[in-house]
Amino acid sequence: QVQLAESGGGSVQAGGSLKLSCVVSGNTASMYASPYCMGWFRRSPGKEREEGVATIDKDGSIRYADSVSGRFTISQDNAKNTLYLQMNSLKPEDTAMYYCAADPHPWTAVQALGVMAEGRYRFNYWGQGTQVTVSS
């Protein structure tokens, strides 16, 4: 089993920055030995489906949502078992609960499984989330 713990959320004004962290614990050796994918997702108020913000595969492949491209940067420090999301030029529409997710398969495999009824991708592991609120 793998556990994920997010931190770094908070309230900022538009144009500000935040850096989210996601610490991976538990069976990390198995996780990092697999062709894994990790990512950040968010659920905005009133939205039925979680939005994929950014994902990163073991091979370094990175994908961003169009809505955050050029403003957000995903990175990982495997020595610290930590995934990051640097968020710059924040907008009120970035307000959401942000979740970290991990799976022992690459993003293409996870994406192919589709989403569950609650609008969440079928990653094996999810964190509890950290709230980001951006005021205008």
Number of strands: 11
Low-confidence runs (pLDDT<50, min 5 residues)?
none
Q: Percent range for helical residues?
A: under 10%
> What's the overall geometry?
globular
**Termini separation (Å)?**
40 Å
Helical run tally: 2
Q: The biggest beta sheet, please?
A: 7 strands, mixed
Whole-angstrom Rg: 14 Å
Strand content: over 45%
Provide the succession of SSEs: EEEHEEEEEEHEE
- What is the typical, i.e. mean, pLDDT? 94
Structural class comes to mainly beta
Describe the overall structure.
By secondary structure, the protein is mainly beta. The chain is 9% helix and 47% strand. It is built from two helices and eleven strands. It has helices at 28-33, 107-112; strands spanning 2-7, 10-13, 18-26, 37-43, 51-57, 62-64, 72-77, 82-87, 96-103, 125-126, 130-135. Strands 2, 4, 5, 6, 9, 10 and 11 form a seven-stranded mixed beta sheet that branches. The longest helix has 6 residues, at 28-33. It is globular, with a radius of gyration of 14 Å. The model has no long low-confidence stretch (mean pLDDT 94).
Provide the descriptors you would attach to this structure in a database record.
136 residues, mainly beta, seven-stranded mixed beta sheet, four-stranded antiparallel beta sheet, globular
